[in-house]
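During the no-cost extension, the postdoctoral fellow (Dr. R.K.) reprocessed legacy sequence entries with the updated structure-token encoder. One reprocessed record is reproduced below for audit purposes.
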Amino acid sequence: MGKIAKIEYFRVPPRWLFVKITDEEGNFGWGEASLEGHTQAVEGCLDSWIERYIGFEADDIEHIWQMSWRTSFYRGGPVFMSALAGLDIALWDLKARKLNVPIYQLLGGKVRSKLKVYAWIGGDRPSDVETQALARKAQGFRAVKMNATEDIGWLDAPSALDSSVERLKAVKNLGMDAGMDFHGRVHKPMAKQLAAALEPHRPLFIEEPLLSEHIGGIQALSSHTSIPIALGERLHSRWDVRPFLEGHCVDILQPDISHVGGISELKRIAAMCEAYDVALAPHCPLGPIALAANIQVDASVANFVIQEMSLGIHYNAGSQDLTSYIKNPEVWKVDDGYIELMTGPGLGIDVDEEWIRSESKDAKAWYSPGFIGPGGEIREW
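Re-encoded structure tokens follow.
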């Protein structure tokens, strides 16, 4: 046993927030509390917990999780749960490193030795999509995800959906699978049309076909399409997830480990999904610590199907990418659509602390861009 001696956080480019916890014996672990566009809010939450949790037993991961959830009166939400994720992941990493085993060994052991992955592609024209998909194929990927549409009006011209179909066809013609991310930017009058237009071309899934606040609309859409419906990045706990499972309107759940309170809660959510025959495909356009944490859970649950990874995504400008803050970037090598399960202790990555500390100096917070329509109206991003 070792008491928590220090909790630090580091704001680093392109838009990530890393957490380091050190105990009195010098054992340490890394977590990720990234919440895109709301870094300062999460930092404020972490500030209050740093003062509170110094002196707690670092091994008591569940106790600290429950203290954070149950003694604060106000619960849940993206800021609170992202801050908790940073602590939770770091505590799991610390404990597993101390025991010299991968985290998945503490979660019941592995049920697979490699994991299916996909990456993001952009582009507005089919030719752009084809070029980027070919580049991903050359990297070893066999599945990609892309935005289903650009910014779109509440009721837009039906022809605005034509390019979505053509871009999906361009990827499928390369022998690759593609998930289509509606990104919550498509409202019901257009979402119904878009799902129907895409269905003959068999996307891997449609993601966030409507915002998760519209569960009735998602239920209705689910009953009218055979395309698997994926969502979950804006659900922040098992309690947020429950109505979607009970409503039988989600086929693939995509919780984000950095927004749901970390490894502890993702493991619980995975078990809930299994009871409803719902697949798990964790959302992760974030950094290497979040991805490594996802992989530890993916390795240990039966209903895992595919993992998002942000390798080379457009947010990761310049030298800041999945490979930037770790010393063993070879763990992200993709071969025929899969990555090998890491076998090292803790998260399985060798975090480059010197580089993190360097890059965190004067790092600016990232802000989510917005869309403005031709009439000056705000559109969903």
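Residues 56 and 312 are 38 Å apart (CA to CA). The chain has twelve helices and 14 strands. The remaining legacy entries will be reprocessed before the final report is submitted.
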